[in-house]
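Figure 2 data, in text form.
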Amino acid sequence: MQNPPSHADNTAPAMAAGLTVVAISSLGDIDPNEWDALVPDAHPFLLHAFLLALEESRSVGADTGWEPLYLTARTQEGALVAALPNYVKYNSYGEYVFDHAWANGFERAGGHYYPKFLTAIPFTPVPGPRLLSREQNPQLAGAMGAALTELAQNNDISSAHINFLSDADRAVLDAQGWMIRKGVQFHWHNHGYQQFDDFLAALSSRKRKNIRKERKSLADDGVRFLQLTGDDITQQHWDKFYEFYLATIDKKWGGAYLTRGFFDRIGQHLADKILLIMAEQDGDIIAGALNFIGHDALYGRNWGCLRELPNLHFETCYYQAIDFAIRTGLSRVEAGAQGIHKVQRGYVPVITYSAHWIGHEAFSSAVQRFLEQENRLVEDEARIITQHSPYRTPDPS
């Protein structure tokens, strides 16, 4: 399938609920208020403005491997009541749930793994709702999951994947027979701290002293930090941050998924949901971290620097985020994918979930057997890491 389908050929599960499901190639075709009404707690990465910024900046779309194909469900009266942020994928880059080995195995056996369907937030490993519906209705959510697999079957798509699910979505898809895959992230939890020192007091003496030493080293080097939101973020700040973003990409020998235009658009439309942390030394901004502010959480996304200093990464990405969360009463900080080094800085392991449907029965059974073993290993890993918690008593989260 070189071009994504413009609509589902047969959406019987959704039609049984009195709905019409249509697949569209751009959120520009949907009223922002209509889409955002489906997003619980105005989750920043699911908002119309965020997803459309990815499109309009060409961070997704032609030649990126991410072709937008959003599923929308409307009543007979035309009201939008459910949707999926879905993409046709021609590779497995930028997903943070790795299935390259699955693709290679399927191709070696003579199959065509790509294109596949992926319901996710591009380049954003943040758990949250994916089966969007009015009032988070499980029947509507189930209809959307069924419509996605039916669309895949009708268009010879090998598989459908839904990454970083909410617990509610996981329950719906598990009941439909989707394969559930587990992963581990590291989140910081706010246990009613009034100031940063309250958090430090909860840590073991050695960990507390280490964090204070790391922070002091930057203060001694004359580094100060700016926490910028809303109108305080200027075009110059975005120019500088894009330099940091590219510097990080260069160090990792990767490709820059996000274009410069993406940052312009989120700065214009989502500034009140952004925390941009900038590190300054000798009058120069030398590093920065991009965070998004949710209803009850701070989400760390990208970071970079032009001047290497010991502990600069930890302070810019982790301690400043914790400080902001405490001051603003947020309940947690989600600092992105991977990074066991976060544990020593107060972040604890949290299980994440993805769901997978594969059309080829034998290959699906092989993946299921693999996941049964992998999920046990992930649970063991999280349990072992928790035993080495930096807190004086086990973190209750």
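Caption note: Residues 69 and 110 are 27 Å apart (CA to CA).
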